[in-house]
Structures are given as C-alpha cells and as structure tokens.
Amino acid sequence: MKKLINAPASVLADALTGVAAAHPDLAVDFANRVVSRGAAVKQGKVALISGGGSGHEPLHSGFVGLGMLDAACAGEIFTSPTPDQMLAATQAVSAGAGVLYIVKNYTGDVLNFEMAAELAEAEGIPVKSVLVADDVAVEDSTWTAGRRGVGTTVLVEKIAGAAAEEGADLDAVLAIATRVSENGRSMGVALTSATLPSVGKPSFDLPEDEIEMGVGIHGEPGRTRAPLKPAADIADELVSSILADFDFTGAPVIAMLSGLGGTPLIELYAMYGDVAALLEQRGITVARALVGDYITSLDMAGCSLTLLRADEELLRLWDAPVSTAALRWGV
Amino acid sequence: MKKLINAPASVLADALTGVAAAHPDLAVDFANRVVSRGAAVKQGKVALISGGGSGHEPLHSGFVGLGMLDAACAGEIFTSPTPDQMLAATQAVSAGAGVLYIVKNYTGDVLNFEMAAELAEAEGIPVKSVLVADDVAVEDSTWTAGRRGVGTTVLVEKIAGAAAEEGADLDAVLAIATRVSENGRSMGVALTSATLPSVGKPSFDLPEDEIEMGVGIHGEPGRTRAPLKPAADIADELVSSILADFDFTGAPVIAMLSGLGGTPLIELYAMYGDVAALLEQRGITVARALVGDYITSLDMAGCSLTLLRADEELLRLWDAPVSTAALRWGV
Q: CB contact, 8 Å: A86 with chain B?
C-alpha cells in the first residue's frame, strides 16, 4: 500500500489538522472530529449538519461554509460518526432556528443521526432530518436497507444550504431538501477498488479487464461485473439505468459527474462528453453541470453520475452564492 | 490499463467535447484545441494565454475565465501544442492591449511559444512571455534545459490574470507575472507512475516500497529514489529542499499543495498538516493555502508543494475575484 500518510490510525486526525491549517476560517473540533463554520455561524439561521464515514472527501467537510453546511461530522474511514459527534456539532452550530440533518442512507448513519436528534431535542434544539437514498443500482446493500445515499447528497447540501442562507425556516428548508432528495438519482462505476489505510490492500478484487457497474462508495457490489468497455458504453449504461428509474424529461436537469478519487480530470471530461450527448439524444436539457471530484471513495478509479430534476426555484438556489473549501461561486 | 476513455487516440478530443458541454460559457475551438473565454473576452484588456501538453488538468483549460486566463492551448498528452494552435488562441482573444504567454519551461513549449509570438507580432499583435522554471528538484531534465516549470504556473495565471482584469497594461502584467515566477518554488514526489493512454502501462517502474523524490510532472526522474516513508518525512524533505533554494522568511507565503491526480484529498490534507507545521517551525507565515488537484500528472499518486513569497500587492491580486471551472472565488 502506497499512501501519503503517517500511519493508518492517524489519517483522519492528521487530515483534520491539515484542514484547520489550510482553512483558518473554519473551526475544527479535534476531540469530536467536527468541522464547522465556527464564528461565522449566523444567528437565527437554520443550521445544516451532515457527516458520515471519511474517505469520500470533499464530502462533507469540503462543503462547510457560506451557502452550504454549518458543520460536518467525520467518522473513521468508511465508518459512521457517533451520536456524540453529531450532538457536539449540533451544539456548536445551532443558532436558534433549528437544525437539519442531511443523512446518507447507511444503517449506521441513520441510527446515529436518529439518536443524536433525540439527544438534541432533549436539550430543546428542534431537529429535522432528510434521508438521501438516490443510488438506482441496487435495493439494499452491504450496509444499507433500501437504496444507498450517494451523489444527490452534494446537491441537497448546496440547495438546502442556499435556502437556509436566505432565511427559510426549518420546515421550508426541510421541504426543499426533501424535494432535492426525491428528484435526484445516481449510479456509479468502479474501474478499481479503493484501498483502506487500515487494510492495506484493495477491498475487493477486480480483474484487469473488468469493471463493477453500480458500485457503492464503499466498494459495495453493484449490479454486474462487466468487461472493461469504452467510456461511451459505460455512460450509456449509467444514463439508461438512471432514466429507467425516474422521469427526467420536461424539466431542466442539474448533472454532476463525480470522480471517485483515482480518476484524472481529463477522463472525467471525456466521459461527460458522452453523458451530455446521450442526455441530449433522450431529450433531456442539462441546465447546470459539475465535473470533478465531489463524492469519492479514497483512491478508487471510476465515477458516478447524478441527475437532479430541477425547477426554477431549485436552479435559483443552485446559483446562489456558495463559499466552501470545495465548492465556491458567486460570493 | 483501465481508463474511462473511448480510445487512446481520442482522449483529448473527447475531453474537449466534455468541456464544451459542461461549460457553455467557454468557447472551444476543436480544430485548434483551444479553450477560451469566447464572447466574454474583454476589449482593451491584456490577454493571457497558456498551454502545454494535456494530462495536467485542471491546468490549463480549467483556469480559463474571469480573473485568470483568456485562452488555453491543449497539446496531446504530455506533448507541446503547436505554434499554429497558439497563434489561433492569440487571434481569438487578442483584444487590443497585447498578449502575455505563460510558458512552462519545457523545450517544446518554449520553442513553440517563441514561434507563435513571432507569427503574432508579424500580424501586429504585441506579445510578451513569462517563463516558469520553479522546480528545485533538478537542473535540466528529460525535456528541459534549466529547471522544469510546475506549480508556480498556477499562481502566475491567477495573479497576473487579476492584474490584467484590473486594467494593467502589458508591461505591468508582465512585471507582475515575472515577480510571481521569480518568487515561486516547487518540488514534487511520486508514489506511483502515471499511465499514458497511448502507452498502456506505467511510464516508469517504481517498486511497491519506493518513491521518487523530485519527480517531474511527466514522470521525469527526480533527485532520489527513496524508501516509502511517513508523510511527515516526505513533507520535511519537500519543505527543506524548497527552503534551501530560496529565502521565504520575512514575507507572507502562498502555499499550494497539489495532488498529482491519483491521490485522495484526505491524504493531501494529512500531508498539508505536516507541511504547515514545518513551515511554522521554520518561521514562515502561510497567508493563503490551496489544497487539491491543480497541476496533475494523469493518474500519478503523489503531490507537489509550491511556495510563493508574496507581498501585499500579490496577496491583493490573489484575493481578487476569479471564476473558472477549477478555481473560483469572490465573483
């Protein structure tokens, strides 16, 4: 295993040290492994909190800042953060208007965020949660009952974050977040497995001439083990699978093609060209596009495609200013 | 070789198709492989053009837009663009105030930009060039007489781009670009080799327990082949090598830790924590930091560190609005 780390056990702590050093505007609670806006938390604003296992960066800590999250809780790599961490984050950024938890659908995350919500409510902090379960690849999975939550999470964080920044109340922010969650679909493909620092070898075997269609962001099995094929054919399968699941015609779409961590940007753009052509053939209008690493799986090669059926309000919120380490515009 | 591509020969063309689809605000000249601001070119502004071999994305096409480049010329992977491409870019974005070429010090790039400048001057377009040769690892290299040009190029594009956007004339923009180039230093480390699509296997052999200290962005040999070691030790060697070459004390520093394409963000942040601590120990104040993939080498695992000795004017220009596909703030 070749990694730029000091020791497998210290990767997360060391990365938080780096986040604090690189971004002095963020507050890092090292004991609780929470990255938050710190002094920039706005009184009277609904606070947005997300979190999950580490290894998917920039999700979630890279999305803490104006127009997006107030705090992110970092679990160990591919491991849910604990209710205590989530409660600490809640206490740190609750600003009198309630808190929205943005939860990816993995059993540990779901249970721990539920417990944190109970603890916070017991302290008088109103909490609502939105669950993201957008991965069309499979029903149920290694750590999930129902569908896995993947790329749509980024879009929920951006769009609900904008609504909160505008002053929407907790119910309104929840409604927007739910609308994004319900109208987003994703599917991914792995060309290689990720290697966890604590394991030291690839999590699963993927022969040199095969790919995993519908892979999860922790390397969970997808739909099929397929022969390696041209980007256009992979794009066709991702697009077809997503469109078979949900009607994306007749409304503008926000498209995100995220690398999984080990795929160069030139390949992502090559792939996106095929995705865009296929969507156009199917009569779908992409109103906004993101191409890059947004939700990753350590050093896994591959990508995931996310489509969101948008409307004027969602597009307006999408275009609203955002200023975080990993997503920034219009400020 | 596992890549998200259609065919080795079409990677660049396919990626340009994706750039055009994802970023409708950019103009893509497919015949000349030039990405430019298109209709957004501002009359009376000094135009900034860079370019080089592909495979280092987001450099350069990801840096085309307000506050940075006016055009980027894309060569084949790891191959210089031609004078014809550079001339086409020059004709596309020249706006009456002259053109600055930002050239990384590789022999092909240098010769071709020189020839393009002559062709442009013959058409009555004033051209100046700034050469970036900031890699402290080695003197002369596989494709370079003198030092290789690497990460400081990103900082030249940002800071000189801000000066041009403010209305500085060609001589003033050249002076700023030269100041950045002369005050920036870089060094990189490879954990793995990149694999070129056209070659289909790693460009060089790097055993499982070894790293290449001082590697070039095309996989050129560095200073030493060293045993794999902790991030803190690698950081120490990069920082020490850069500080031994140039005096960074007594002025604020802009630091960029760029991934080389195959290294996850969590590792880059872990590494940056060590870099920041070492700089602090050496009495150096980091005023601004960038951590992420900015100048890459396809799927190479590893990173490069760039330090720029800044002053108030350079920091002010650094903070000026920028809006490109890969670097964006304050707009």
A: no
pLDDT band at B40 (very low <50, low <70, confident <90, very high): confident
Cα angle, residue A221 at apex, residues A216 and A222 outer, rounded to 5°: 75
Q: Which residues in B lie closer than 8 A to residue A320 (C-beta atoms)?
A: none
Cβ distance B18 to A208 less than 8 Å, yes or no, reads: no
Distance CA B68, CA B35 (A): 13
**Cα–Cα distance measured from residue B229 to residue B210, given in angstroms and rounded to the nearest whole number:** 8
Whether B218 is catalytic: yes
Q: What is the pTM of this model?
A: 0.98
CB atoms within 10 A of CB A42: 17
- ipTM, two decimals, is 0.97
Residue B147 tokens, joined: 């030092």
CA distance B77 to A294: 25
| B56 catalytic per annotation | yes
Whole-number Å distance between alpha carbons of A293 and A296: 6
Asked if pLDDT for residue B331 goes beyond 70, the answer is no
**How crowded is the C-beta side of A319, counted as CA atoms within 13 Å?**
9
CB of A21 within 8 Å of any CB in chain B?
yes
Q: Does A231 touch chain B (CB under 8 A)?
A: yes
* Three-state DSSP class for residue A148: coil
**Structure-token pair, residue A181:** 């969650």
DSSP secondary structure letters along A235-277: HHHHHHHHHHHS--TTS-EEEEEEE-BSS-HHHHHHHHHHHHH
Question: Do A57 and B292 count as a contact with CB atoms less than 8 A apart?
Answer: no
The answer, for A287 touching chain B at a CB cutoff of 8 Å, is no
CA distance A227 to chain B (A): 11
The pLDDT tens digits of the residues spanning A168-222 come to: 999 999 999 999 999 999 999 999 999 999 999 999 999 999 999 999 999 999 9
What does each of the 331 residues of chain A score in pLDDT, given as a tens digit? Answer: 999 999 999 999 999 999 999 999 999 999 999 999 988 889 999 999 999 999 999 999 999 999 999 999 999 999 999 999 999 999 999 999 999 999 999 999 999 999 999 999 999 999 999 999 999 999 999 999 999 999 999 999 999 999 999 999 999 999 999 999 999 999 999 999 999 999 999 999 999 999 999 999 999 999 999 999 999 999 999 999 999 999 999 999 999 999 999 999 999 999 999 999 999 999 999 999 999 999 999 999 999 999 999 999 999 999 999 999 999 987 5
Residue tagged active-site, from B33, B37, B56, B158: B56
Residue with tokens 């769009």: A159
The beta-carbon contacts of B11-15 under 8 Å, at least 24 apart in sequence, are B11/A266, B11/A267, B11/A270, B11/B54, B11/B77, B11/B197, B12/A266, B12/B54, B12/B74, B12/B76, B12/B77, B14/A231, B14/A269, B14/A270, B14/A273, B14/A274, B15/A266, B15/A267, B15/A269, B15/A270, B15/A273, B15/B54, B15/B57
**Chain B interface disruption, residue of A25, A192, A266, most B CBs within 10 A:** A266
Task: Retrieve residue A264's tokens.
Answer: 């160069």
CA-to-CA distance for B22 and A254, rounded, in angstroms?
Answer: 11
Measured between beta carbons, the chain A residues lying within 8 angstroms of B261 are 264-265
Q: Does A216 touch chain B (CB under 8 A)?
A: no
Catalytic residue among A33, A37, A45, A56: A56
